[in-house]
Design brief:
The structure holds 2 protein chains of 2 kinds. Chain A contains 2 helices and 3 strands. Chain A has one domain. The radius of gyration of chain A is 33 Å and the shape is rod-shaped. By secondary structure, chain A is α+β, with helices and mostly antiparallel strands. In chain A, strand 1 and strand 2 form a beta hairpin. Chain A has a 3-stranded antiparallel β-sheet with strand order 1-2-3. The radius of gyration of chain B is 41 Å and the shape is rod-shaped. Chain B is α+β, with helices and mostly antiparallel strands. In chain B, helix 1 crosses helix 4 and helix 2 runs antiparallel to helix 3. In chain B, the strands form 6 sheets. In chain B, strands 14, 15, 18, 19, 20, 21, 23 and 24 form an 8-stranded mixed β-sheet that branches. In chain B, strands 3, 4, 10, 11 and 12 form a 5-stranded antiparallel β-sheet that branches. In chain B, strands 6-7-5-13 form a 4-stranded mixed β-sheet, covered by helices on one side. Chain B contains 8 helices and 24 strands. Chain B has 2 domains: about 250 residues, no CATH class; about 210 residues, no CATH class. Classes of the chains: A alpha+beta, B alpha+beta. Chains A and B meet through helix 1 and strand 3 of A and helix 1 of B.
Chain lengths: ~150, ~525
């Protein structure tokens, strides 16, 4: 008998304990879920912002390189008209994408006295993850190159 | 004991579960925080790496632009020339990288002419000294230019003009790019060895027996670059500049094997380089980014190898010698025209009687009286004389041809009031790059740089017969006398062309002396 009572007691107690445990486990899972969700709410924007930053960084460098290429093309010309055409032809090779939507010549300064040419370009950027307050950026880059297409003085 | 044990067991069990639950809560929190930090660290790392890589590219671009600027601006470095080389200087009377080959071209032609004079035994007493002086003056001008070109301050200035106006924002915002002087590497090289220089030449302008290194490209021939050539026992080295090329970047694998310190040009320590290396540096105190670039220079301008202010003289002399009984009584010059009747000896008193002697001379000029006709009048192969003339004329204008020379000489008529005819290049351009070959009598309008009074002093060579005509009798001249004599009067005609070379150091490059002699023999015996 004592053994049966003891078994019943143990049984009833263990059932109660199991019930408590289930409640606690559910509470713990929810808490983890909440923690995770809160975590993701913080982390996801950071990650998305990082994606935008990477896109901006990458396109800024691309824009600089386009300006550099255009300036080199202009530098190999002997007059301003030719330089402008060379820059335009150079920038024609730009292929628009969903991120970098356009690339345009902003300014060209053909300084024959100092023997240098400066080319400035503007690139229109649509960030991959649009930010609520801005999703378009204009990136400017300029490059200076020596004029190599003019013959040495007589 | 058995009744107390289960609660303990449960309590222990609950405690364990609570501990586990706390651990899970902490693990999740830590995980989130760790992920957050990890993500941010990753983003920061990638950002820094991207910035560094972008900055490195900015430094590389700056080094490229700086090196290109140096190779371009080096053309602006000019040094004063010597009056002896003023005709190959630029419009400001200076010599730089673009026209240094022109300077050496003139020095080379002078010494090549001198070597030919020595080989033909026609070098005069001044010849050796003139060759040495021509070479030494050119070397001095070259050395002055070299010092300026190899000067690191000059290179730094040109580098900074371009690289200094750029920034490496991605490494150090707002900070410029500097010249990297931390490690010295010889910044000059002579690349494209054996290729063409910017000096156009014609093989015909090089005297016979002299070998010049040349590179044929299209229809043009250029003096070979960075291959020393010997003339008059002196070494001449021209700087290579590819035709039709702009200054451009070259790789280290091209620059390094041709560096001035690793592979100098034999026999010339101060040969003008054509490639320059520059190194850029940008740093933020923690990381330095350096980049090196090499560029080859090109003036995009070529010149002809010439002695612009030089001249040839043509001297024509027709002499009739009047002999009586084999003895010369008189010499009378005659004009270059056919059938001139001269009463050479009027009432000439001989031991036995008085005679009057007549001659009809100039029959050799029946075909005309231009300079070309005078040359052709010599009944011998006159081509050696024409070749000599053309070689020297091509020293003034390498594009000049034999056909043009013949036409030039045909268009110049003999002038009885002139002593000599000057063939020279009239050049109205400021830098003597547009020669127009002309012939002019010495009584005409000659350029101011021709000093007619110092004519003979200008030649450093000695005369030598070039073409000799066999003597003819009564073919181009006739003689008669009154009263008649025995034997019958005869008229003998002969001619010779004498070439007196000049090196060009004192402007004279040659004198063609055309001498025709008609000897009229008379007799005093009835």
């Amino acid at each position: 008998m004592p053994s049966t009572r003891s078994q019943n007691y143990r049984k009833s107690n263990s059932t109660k304990a199991r019930g408590n445990f289930r409640v606690n486990a559910r509470r713990a899972s929810a808490q983890t879920l909440i923690e995770a969700m809160v975590g993701f709410i913080v982390l996801i924007p950071i990650a998305l912002f990082a994606v935008d930053v990477v896109a901006l960084l990458s396109t800024a460098q691309t824009n600089e390189q386009w300006a550099e290429t255009a300036a080199r093309a202009a530098g190999s010309c002997s007059c301003e008209t030719m330089a402008q055409n060379a820059v335009k032809n150079s920038l024609k090779r730009f292929v628009p994408s969903s991120i970098a939507s356009s690339l345009e010549l902003e300014k060209i300064t053909f300084d024959q006295i100092n023997g240098q040419v400066t080319v400035a370009t503007v690139m229109q950027i649509n960030v991959p993850i649009p930010l609520p307050w801005m999703n378009q950026f204009q990136l400017r880059a300029s490059a200076i190159q020596p004029l190599l297409g003019t013959p040495a003085a007589q | 004991m058995s009744q107390k044990a289960p609660p303990k067991l449960i309590t222990r069990g609950l405690g364990h579960k609570q501990k586990t639950r706390r651990s899970k809560r902490a693990a999740s929190l830590i995980l989130v925080i760790a992920c957050g930090f990890g993500l941010m660290a990753l983003i920061y790392g990638l950002f820094t790496l991207a910035m560094f890589l972008g900055g490195s590219r900015q430094v590389r671009n700056a080094a490229d632009a700086g090196a290109l600027n140096v190779s371009r601006k080096m053309m602006d470095i000019r040094v004063p020339t010597d009056p002896k080389y003023a005709d190959v200087a630029d419009t400001n009377g200076k010599v730089g990288m673009s026209n240094v080959n022109r300077l050496w071209g003139k020095a080379y032609l002078i010494n090549a002419n001198l070597e030919e004079m020595q080989k033909s035994g026609q070098a005069g007493p001044k010849a050796g000294g003139n060759g040495d002086a021509a070479y030494q003056i050119a070397q001095t001008i070259n050395d002055n230019l070299y010092v300026n070109l190899a000067d690191s301050k000059t290179q730094d200035l040109f580098f900074s003009q371009m690289a200094g106006r750029r920034t490496a924002n991605m490494i150090n915002p707002g900070m410029g790019i500097d010249k990297n002087n931390k490690q010295y590497v010889c910044p000059i090289a002579m690349v494209d060895r054996g290729d063409e220089s910017n000096l156009v030449m014609t093989p015909g302008q090089i005297p016979d027996g002299i070998t010049a290194g040349k590179v044929d490209k299209g229809s043009k021939s250029f003096m070979q670059g960075y291959v020393p050539m010997v003339a008059n026992n002196k070494k001449f080295t021209f700087t290579s500049f590819h035709e039709g090329e702009q200054p451009h970047l070259i790789s280290d694998s091209v620059f390094d094997p041709n560096r001035a310190d690793i592979a100098p040009i034999e026999g010339s320590a101060t040969v003008i380089p054509n490639a320059f290396r520059q190194s850029a540096l940008a740093g933020n105190g923690q990381i330095d980014s350096t980049a090196t670039a090499s560029a080859v220079a090109n003036p995009i301008r070529s010149y002809s190898m010439t002695i612009p202010e030089s001249y040839i003289t043509v001297y024509v002399q027709n002499i009739s010698n009047w002999n009586v009984d084999g003895k010369k009584v008189k010499s009378i010059p005659y004009e270059t025209k056919a059938d001139q009747t001269i009463h050479g000896l009027v009432d000439h008193q001989t031991p036995t009687r008085v005679i009057n002697c007549f001659g009809k001379v100039g029959g050799e000029y029946a075909s005309g009286h231009s300079i070309m006709a005078i040359i052709k009048a010599l009944k011998a192969d006159y081509q050696p004389a024409m070749k000599k003339l053309l070689q020297r004329v091509q020293g003034m204008d390498p594009s000049y041809t034999m056909a043009k020379l013949v036409k030039l000489l045909e268009n110049q008529n003999y002038d009885k009031n002139a002593n000599r005819y000057y063939i020279f290049a009239k050049d109205d351009s400021a830098d003597h790059t547009d020669p127009q070959i002309q012939i002019q009598a010495d009584n005409g309008s000659l350029p101011p740089w021709i000093d007619v009074s110092s004519w003979q002093q200008d030649f450093d060579g000695t005369p030598k017969d070039l073409v000799t005509e066999p003597t003819t009798t009564d073919e181009y001249a006739n003689a008669w006398q009154s009263p008649p004599g025995t034997p019958q009067p005869t008229a003998k005609n002969s001619g010779v062309m004498i070439w007196q070379p000049g090196s060009g150091y004192t402007k004279a490059v040659g004198n063609l002396f055309i001498s025709r002699t008609t000897t009229l023999n008379f007799s005093s015996k009835p």
